[in-house]
Amino acid sequence: MTENSAHSAPSAIVSASELKDELAGPRPPVLLDVRWQLGGPDLRSAYEAGHLPGAVYVDLDRELAGPPGAGGRHPLPEPEEFGAVMRRAGVSADRPVVVYDGGLGWAAARAWWLLRWTGHTGVRVLDGGLAAWTASGGPVSADAVTVSEGDFKPNPGAVELLDADAAAALARSGILLDARAGERYRGEVEPIDRVGGHIPGAVSAPTTENVGADGLFLAAEALRERFAGLGASGEAPVGVYCGSGVSGAHEVLALEVAGIPAALYAGSWSQWSADPARPVATGPAPQ
Fold it and tell me: Residues 265, 166: contact at Cβ < 8 Å?
């Protein structure tokens, strides 16, 4: 293992019990509720019906992504617009942040990745999301939330971001993981994008296999073993893509828990497959 791959990052996630203790402490984290479902509608009504006390709702489609287009279905938001959203939600540079969603973790990971990419060093994902919180007996509230504006100013580039060309190169020179379901990777079905298949050289690594039946992340050692079996031990550069840069962020988070740094191709398959000039591979093999 390289020095980087041996470095674990337990602070990337926080358990429900740990979060309860922190919220009762002298320096509670800012809470962001990022519940989301692919294709909408937004889940603000679900948030209003019950959320972690003090949590602020953030809409993934409108506030954690730019308008769909050449950059894919969920292109990155403009940094200044993202910064304004985070400040309105109470995010400051020197205060920890915990993000959660309904339990799948994909949307929360997108918010985690964006905050990391723009320079926030104290952001974590609630492991298991709202489902784990309520299962642990954590309280929920339907009260309206008002927070003081934060001071967070985004500084993009704190973690590595891939474009299409860099993703293609990494598939040849390092390890590029495809976080989508295996049948989409193989090109057997494609319910959303123009064509099915995968980036030539990419390895199938469904992000759903990074969590157990309880919805919680596998232990760090189990994740390290899983990724090593896919060729991602940290010895070579690692990148991740998915359909539109959401579930891929969850795989980057799993790699972080395993102590393996990874870059995200945010445009992902939605951007790649929209360009007829980009090659497409099908079947179970990377090539």
Answer: yes
Is residue 227 within 8 A of residue 233, CB to CB? The reply is: yes
Q: What are the tens digits of pLDDT across the range 51-90?
A: 999 999 999 999 999 999 999 999 999 999 999 999 999 9
- Residue tagged active-site, from 114, 216, 242, 264: 242
The average confidence (pLDDT) of the chain is 94
Q: Domains in the chain and their CATH numbers? A: 3-135 (3.40.250.10), 161-272 (3.40.250.10)
pTM (two decimals):
0.94
Residues in Cβ contact with 221 at an 8 Å cutoff, skipping those fewer than 6 apart: none
What average pLDDT does this structure show over 190-207? 95
Strands (E), the chain: 13-14, 30-33, 56-57, 97-100, 123-126, 161-162, 175-178, 203-204, 238-241, 263-265
Query: What does the alpha-carbon distance between residue 218 and residue 215 come to, in Å, rounded to a whole number?
Result: 9
Name which of 279, 287, 232 is nearest 254 in CA terms: 232
Catalytic site residue 114? Answer: no
